[in-house]
Design goal:
The chain is an alpha+beta fold and 194 residues long. It is built from six helices and six strands, in the order H-E-E-E-H-E-H-H-H-E-E-H. The longest helix has 32 residues.
Length: 194
């Protein structure tokens, strides 16, 4: 009888251990399947290749921009934020997009001139892309689809929507277009207060 009890306890131990190992492998597999922003290479506003993997270890704000929008003055706040924190492993990457009310009709050259002349933009600006619809850029599929970013499904509501990416290249938060880049929620995130 004692022998049967010992064998039963031992069998239960082996089963629980096997299940725990299987669960651990499953969780590890899920984590490694999660995509990061580092897989993307895009074209900057001057036509050069821009590789997000060069930003490893930095916090990144990705923002879709427009030159003829009521929110266009946010360029000023974006530049102020970038100037203050660019030496603290923080970068802003701007993506001009013409998806909302045709508010970014210009060419890359016109957009670059507008940004520099009117707002002194020095943070990296990329070539114009689409951030929604059938021709949505793959980067924005990553930013807006939970199956790819592991955080949440979202859609770009308007110009100047902000996506906050942590130092590991993972999406951490989505900030509404109407929330200023200098809002406490963004600053606290940059300064690790959140």
């Amino acid at each position: 009888m004692r022998k049967i009890l010992i064998i039963s306890v031992f069998s239960l131990f082996i089963m629980n251990f096997s299940q725990a190992q299987s669960k651990k492998k499953s969780n590890t597999k899920t984590k490694t399947m999660k995509e990061t922003i580092y897989q993307f290479k895009v074209e900057d506003i001057e036509g050069n290749s821009f590789d997000f993997s060069t930003l490893k270890g930095k916090k990144i704000m990705v923002v879709n921009t427009a030159s003829k929008c009521g929110l266009t003055p946010q360029y000023k706040d974006l530049e102020a934020l970038y100037s203050k924190y660019k030496d603290s492993d923080f970068v802003i990457v701007g993506f001009p997009a013409n998806n909302f009310g045709s508010q970014e009709p210009g060419t890359n050259e016109e957009i670059a001139t507008f940004c520099e002349r009117n707002y002194g933009v020095s943070f990296p600006m990329m070539s114009k892309i689409s951030v929604k619809g059938d021709d949505m850029h793959p980067l924005y599929h990553f930013l807006t689809e939970k199956s790819k970013n592991g955080l949440e499904d979202s859609q770009v509501e308007w110009n100047f929507q902000k996506y906050l990416i942590n130092e590991n290249g993972e999406l951490e938060n989505v900030i509404s277009p109407r929330v200023l880049p200098t809002d406490a929620s963004v600053v606290d995130w940059i300064e690790n207060k959140k």
